Structures are given as C-alpha cells and as structure tokens.
Amino acid sequence: MNIIFLGNAKTIYRKIPGYENMIFFRGLPMNAHPKLPRALCGTVRAEASPEQLFRNLQVGLDTFQSQHNQRLSNIEAALNAGLGAGPPILPDVGGGTSWGDQVVASSELAAFVSAAGKGRVQIALSPQAAITSIGTSGGPLIQPDRADAVAMPRRRLTVRGLLGVGTTGSNMVEYPRQNVRDNQAATVAEGALKPESNYGFALAQAKVATIAHWVAVSRQAMDDAGQLRTIINGELRYGLALREETQLLLGDGVGTNLLGLIPQATAYDVTGQPAGISKFDVLLHALAQSEVADLPATGVVVNSSDWMKLQGLKDGQGRYIGSGPMGTAMPTAWGLDVVPSNSMPVGKFLVGNFANSATIYDRMTPVVLVSSEDRDNFIRNMLTVLCEERIALAVRQPAALIYGDYAAAAG
Question: How far apart are CA 347 and CA 65, in angstroms?
C-alpha cells in the first residue's frame, strides 16, 4: 500500500488495495464522499499546520487498520467454524507496527515536513496480516492435485503365445504318446514272407492345475474409487499370468504344480561341440540337435539380459556381429525368432518346435470374482476379490525341446 502526499495542492491522494481511490478535499463536508470510510473522511482546515495534518492522518489510519484487523478476525472465525475445531488458520493480526506508526516514523515524511509540506512524497506501507501458503496461514485451504496411480513394473509375458492352445472339460488330460518305433519295412522277393514292424504307445497324463489368489478390499474403497477397482482387477490378472508363465516353463510337477517345458525337455548334447565357440555357435549346435531328431526348431527362448549381451558381441575388428545400435531388425538368430524373457533363468536357453511339441488346455479361463459372503465380510463391510484359472500342459514331444546353457562358450 502506498500513501502519496501532494504539497501546495487542494487534495491529499491515497491508494488502499481493495478500495476505490479516495480523495480528501480541503474544506468539504464528510457527506460529499459517501464511498469513503468514515474514519478517513472529514473536513481538513486549510490553515492547519502540516504537523497537525499528519497527526490527524495517523489517527485515521490507525482507526482504519483496527477495522481492517477486525474484519480479518471475523473471516478467521468464520473459516474455523466451517472447518471444525483446530488451531487458527490465519495468523495473528493484532501485533506489528500500525500503518500510522509506519507513516510517522518514515524518513520520507520527515523530509516532507522539513520542506513545509511542499513537493511530493510516496510512502510504502507493509501489510500486517498477509495470507500465505504455510501451514499456519492459508496452507490448509490449498488442495493438492492427485495424479493417476503409478503401478510397479510388469514383466513381458511371452511363453503362452508360443504353444498350441486347446480346451478340456475334465480335471485330467490323457493322450497316447508313441514310445516304440521298430520299422522293418524292406523290399521282399516274390513269395517271401514280409517283415513285421512294431510300434508302441504309452498313455500320458496332464493334470489340470488351479492357479489363484485373492485380496480383501473394503466395500467403500471399491464403490468410491473406480481407479482402485481397475488396478486391483489388473494386478490380480497380471499376477495370475506371471505365475502361469513360471509354471509353464519351470513347473516341477510336484504336488499341485504343473510339469513344465524345461523339466520335460531334452538336455543339450555337447558331443562334437568344438572348443572356443561363441554363444551363437552354441545355439546353432542346439538347432542341429533338433534337426537330427527330425523335430526342427521354430524358435529360441533366452533370458532377456543374456540377449542384450548377445546383441553386443563384436568380431575381431570391433564390429557388431548383429545389426548394431542403429539396427531395427527383429530378434532373430540363425533364421529363427528369438523370444527374450525374464522368466528364463540367466545363462540358459530353450530351443524347440513349441507349437507342435506342447499344448495348453484351458479348463477355466481367468476370471475375477467378488464376494461379500466370505468369512465375516458381511458384518465388516468387506469384499473378497478372487482371481483364478485352471489349465493343463501336455508336452507331447519332449525331444522337440532342447534345454541347455552357454557354459562351453568363449564369448
């Protein structure tokens, strides 16, 4: 706020933030200025000395500030009443130096008086009750913005997409698997006995396993937060798919576990592997093994970090073996698709004809169920959110899957 004095003029001009400009005319009656605060209106005698004039002005300013402070106190009381009991949300406005004291003590006014009220002077006044964003002032009235929830990272899941998919209506899938092939087909002479071949089959079984988990949520949270409901459903489904991928790859068949691809795969044969070969050479040797078994591979599953290292391999002249950092080629090795996955153990690989060697049977596709009848949910106003699926895995051709590591690789 600024006070401006104009010497040798008929007016005293004053600006107060929040009020219209107010002009004091010497010798005019109070009712000539109906918009001015009464404390600042009145007749100013032309013959009054500057000292008397400023004393009268100080009284008017002090009176006005007192009324201003009272208004702030009323606002504080109203806000506190609306927000409930608690500490005052506005600072104390009773202390500090009044506007009148600031005017009288200013060096600008002293210079103006010494000049017999001639000239022009501007005095800056400091507010006594500023509202700020701190906790003891207007901070509680400021509401923070709420952004979308940030979920934890999710793994890229790829194994299901490699396999054949079917359905079942039972808790067990049985299929005959050939285990004997004694082929005696030959050319024969006229009138001679024909040779007999022999074929054998064994009945294999793939049990249906249930993968499930649940979470408890209050009814209020589910009803009042649509975003929370979406996150819970998404997290439950993702958790189910993550466990499914682990079971498809690594399940040991013990108890309720599936018997996965890796425990049933054929071990990588290092026979005939030359010394000092690279990791890409190891993969080529595994592909050759599947070719010899008459079960040519269609893809390779590797650990994601291992694949990053393979992409960084260089030749003897420091050139990248692959497409290099500027390349846009899809992950491939020896003409086959490569599927990087963090579900594959580090340092291991799985080469195979996946779609023809193994099939997932869905007994129940993933579902999300919500119930208020679990335990004491009804009287506690809680909900149980359950997500589950039932699947079986049948590995029909274990020889079509080659599992090994890069232990013999030199780089």
Answer: 79
